[in-house]
Amino acid sequence: MARLGRLMVDQPLVPLVGLLAGLVAVLEILQPGIVNERWIGNTIRFAIPLAMLAACQTLTMLTGGIDLSAGTVATVAAFVTATLTPGLGAPAAIAVAMACALAAGLVNGIGIAFARVHPLIMTLGTGLIATGCLLVYQRTVIASGAEFPALLVWLGTGRTWGLPNGLVLFIPFAALVIWAQRRTGFGRLLYAIGANETAARLSGVRVWQVHLALYALSGVIAGLTGLLYLGVVKTASLSLALPLDLPSVAAAVVGGTSIFGGRGGYGGTIVGALILTVLATMLTLLQMPEGGRRILYGAIILAVTALYIRLTDRN
Amino acid sequence: MRAVAANGWTVGLAVLLALLLLATKLIQPEFGASGLDSLARSALPFALATAGMAVVVIAGGIDLSIAAMMAVASVTAAVLMDGASDAEAVLAVIAVLLLGLAMGALNGALIVVTRVPDIVVTLAMLFVWQGTALLILNAPGGGAAPWLRALVVGGVTLPGVPPALTEWLPRGVVVLALVVTAVWLPIRRSKLGLMIYAIGSDPLAAFRSGVPVGRTRIVAYAVCGLFAALGGLAVTMATGIGEPIPGPYLLTSVAAVVLGGVVLGGGRGGLLGPILAIFVLRLVRLDLTLLSVDPNTAAIIEGAIMVAVVMFGGVLAMRGARHD
Lengths: 315, 324
Hints:
- The complex is a heterodimer.
- Chain A is an all-alpha fold.
- Chain A has 14 helices and two strands; from the N terminus they run αααααααββααααααα.
- Chain A has one domain (38-308).
- Chain A has a two-stranded antiparallel ribbon.
- In chain A, β1 and β2 form a beta hairpin.
- Chain A starts with a helix and ends with a helix.
- By secondary structure, chain B is an all-alpha fold.
- Chain B is 76% helix and 0% strand.
- Chain B is built from 15 helices and no strands.
- Chain B has helices at 2-6, 8-27, 33-58, 66-81, 86-114, 118-136, 146-150, 163-166, 171-189, 191-201, 203-208, 213-239, 249-259, 272-290, 295-323.
- In chain B, α2 (8-27) packs parallel to α14.
- The relative contact order of chain B is 0.19.
- Chains A and B meet through α6, α12 and α14 of A and α6, α13 and α15 of B.
């Protein structure tokens, strides 16, 4: 047992991939023949937005924070893009949407960095303000109709050689995040602040700069996710990415990122997002009523994290 | 004077509430007993959710599943009271309250036993309770006992006292005050209350002083579950049916708790501050509606106020820490 625990701490991806493989095996047993190329492609297609949103959570959780405005910011970016494209054309609409996402991230960053507001509260508040702005904005464009930029639709729903086109965006994105968290100074600072903020501060780290940059980055990532999700779902909805909000936190946690900070990484989060997506498919297959599905979803998240904590007991 | 200084934040909130009431009267001169009554009735579930969240936050934790627990309580009450007699309705209320205690205790027990952080556990339990509510009642429905609904409607009438004197006081406020006092005051004054503040303030020091940290935590979450059950009952009382989809109580209750002077780290604050804060928030919303402000713009203003107050409070806390 202790060896398994050490394995999980040193190579956290191994047990996670094992869990994912186990889930897929169970899925195959439940309905033989379901695991084929088409299903894998679909699973990846739906896991990508979740994994991208979970990147926001992973990065902020590394410093002991959280970003509960991510889903709302993604929805805002998607809605603004969809409604501005008919009038301004796709590139300008996307630029405006990303500017909104960056603004939201900066607001988060300013509140958390300068006024020392707890990230949970600050991001909840920013999410509420963003929702209000979105609703006000929606009233002004109610007549303009919605259009989905061709690039986003291609990214969201197309396939090349059987794999979703979204991977064209996601693989460089994931590689960048993983490289950044491990190899750049910024990534090291995130881990340092999460592990012991006082020590980091005493070592000369300008924590406020890191927080500001971090939450601005989180806003940008959320905006990107919104754009991609718009291509996947192809609806201009006011609650587009909100169902991904809490599962993105769950994906990061299941992937081994500690909510207290200092531990975890994006690789685990990606596997966590895949696990949650496969889990959702499995629950749909079991043909349980919606209530039963939710209960199992919550119970499994709890069981996985409890097991993880039990095995990697550091205290 | 020292009492005022010690409870400065709460006093400030009370003054703010009074000013807002004055402003409401200025905006709409006909605002009177019925206005206060509908304000109290709409604020009741929020206030109870805030009370529950405040207890948990004081104990150093947080409960993200509170809105979902309220939904479970609401649908259970609606299902049990649907077509039941008055006596059976009383039993139903008691059953729902016990259910709330059990749900909260389960949350607390899972946090203690699995040693998973409270945010993660209550996040997972949010799904579990949501699912439970949907299993009990998968669409809004059920019923509510008439005497229960009458309990919070209208002004207070005391036998022997001329109605004009007491009718301006909404029954909802009285019920809220009675319930919160009945649950919280005995706890606060007892050893249990001291232990709750202790584990919120510094769990390690509390442990070393002999406080049973695990058990106290479970009790704190159980009390939160009790308030959630009361909140769910309030929702059913207000609408007359059970609602399986959780309402916006989570975000508002966390905001009110922080606005009410309870530090998110735990160990400080009380219940009066957050409850005053929730009435301030609801009154701001009412004033904005009376001023014919678009409800969506009102949401922006609410969010901005919340963020601004919390930022102000954070800056104040920083200043205070530096002077130590």
